[in-house]
Amino acid sequence: MNSNFKIIILIFLLSAMCLHAAPSPKAKSFLKSIIIPGWGEVSNGDKTGYIHFAAEILLFSTKYYYQNQADVYNTNAEDCALKYSGIESMNITNQHKVDLGKYDSSGYGPNGYNAYILQSMHYDYPDLTEQEQIDFLAEHTYSDELGWDWDSGAHRAKYRVYRKKNMDFKDKAKVMTSAIIMNHLASGIHSMFSSARKANKNKQVKFGVSTNKDDNLLLTAIVRF
Question: Which of 50, 98, 135, 179 has its CA 20 to 30 A from that of 123?
Fold first, then answer.
């Protein structure tokens, strides 16, 4: 669960807890729309609230689609790696997955990750002792248990394509989560204006004419809130 979606859940829970204790109609309308976009407006007789509600359904549906596509491409990438790279498990770190797609193998051959580390060590730390070199390589290279060796560059390229699509759809899902949060906030603010308009409509103003004891005409106005 990403951080934006946790924020949505937190907003929902806090708003639900505060709804019954809301001190004014505006606050109640705001909290209703924070919980379910459009609820506060519709409660005030404002049908534009249905726009926020429809947007909520659309945004959640789009987020679900993007997240589902991200999961599909993640599965494709893992299946490709397990089948063609020789890696034993995909229960690895994200950096490991990046390196898996970047290098033909984890070994010391051409375009091997460990070969790159060895070359970098000699270039960056030329004064290391033999034991320090052994320790450095042990810390920064991949062991045989975590190693890989792609059977072809084409399969490695396909893995990278799957990984890129996975990350692209993940980013899109995050954008939808942010849009959902904004829709809740926008509806909440809109509902407060809707509540104010409703209150103004409910005001009753009565005018009357009367006379005082000196028979002077008096104009009276009664405003009911």
Answer: 98
User: If you average pLDDT over residues 58-67, what whole number do you get?
Assistant: 96
Kindly report, residue by residue over 14-35, the tens digit of the pLDDT: 555 555 555 567 778 888 888 8
CA–CA distance, 69 with 77 (Å, rounded to integer): 12
What's the 3-state SS for 170-217? HHHHHHHHHHHHHHHHHHHHHHHHHHHHHHHHHCEEEEEEEECCCCCE
Give me the amino acid identity at 23: P
Instruction: Give this prediction's pTM.
Output: 0.73
The Cα-based distances of 155 to 77, 96, 101, 112 in angstroms read 10, 17, 10, 16
> Which pair of tokens denotes residue 201?
């409509």
- 39 membership: H or E segment, kind and range: helix 39-43
CA dist., res. 1 & res. 143, Å (int): 31
DSSP letter, residue 149: B
DSSP 48-106: THHHHHHHHHHHHHHHHHHHHHHHHHHHHHHHHHHHHT--S-S-S-HHHHHHHHHSSBS
